[in-house]
Amino acid sequence: MRVLKIIALVSIMILGQACSQNSNSKNSKSKEMEKISPKDFTTFTVSDSVELYRVSFKNQYKMNVVGHLFMPKKLNRNQKHSALIVVHPMGAVKEQAADLYASNMANHGFITLSIDQSFWGESEGEPRNAVLPEVYVENFSAAVDFLGTREFVDREKIGVIGICGNGSFAIAAAKIDPRIKAVATVSMYDMGSVSRNGINKSQTLEQRKQFIAQTAEQRYVDFNGGEEKWINYLPVKLPEDADSIRREFWDFYRTPRGIHIPKGRTLELTQNRTISTEVKFMNFYPFNDIETISPRPLLFITGDHAHSKEFSEDAYKRAAEPKELYYVKNAGHVDLYDKIEIIPFEKLDSFFKKNLM
Question: Strands 81-87, 50-58: parallel, antiparallel or unpaired by DSSP?
Fold first, then answer.
């Protein structure tokens, strides 16, 4: 009898642990997706036919990544559907451009996920505003992990849209993650090339070496707990001698048009990056081996007046078929962040429906 009681007690304990684990799993799943109202956001709009969720998940380095999931209300969640990952311009957050693209593509019937890159917005990472290209690239794959494990997503039909600098990170991710089935970039910046050479090869090797030396010395300051230094490219007040490119960015990030200040930050600290980590872009070569992405399709969208169009043209030249370079007439670089009247959503819609549906 005593043996039977012990067996029964052990069985109850095992059952209790299993129930507890199952409950924890359900709680964990519920925390991954939280329905929220889009009314609090001013940089993008969501139609009445789309639902918005705040989501969070871990990347491979156990850093928490936070995003917005847009779901068409009429979507049958008992079936599997195509999905898109959308990532914001370099130094921005999901509320700036990425959510606008994600919400509009959800109107076209896609499940869309926009994320904050690590070190930015609501995603984890210290120091804030740090540059670490490998982690940026990893977060695309982590987003695929998240979407591909949703019961309503077809993991064979996941594509990405990378805006500005995240266009180059999207390319780098697709090179090593074949689960990304189609890639579109918008106003793409090659963050490695522009750091090494400047726009239109305007930076000399001597200037590059000078910056590298400056960042190396700043590491001593950082190591000793000294004052952190920033590349104050976009101050709150626009300098009188600002060039046209700087003015273009300032008009978006420092005016009501595109301002979004994450919790715990200030307007001055948004966009600007830490000097000692910025140098890591020098070792970033996203277009090397871009041809290996084939036969998965690539679409490069750029304004025909964009100062950054050289990067889309370079990527297109190096890539293998199928590929397409699409110019938006009379559009500059930042115009494609938020000017809905000229953003080619129909082009994106046809590209992804052809290749993912």
Answer: unpaired
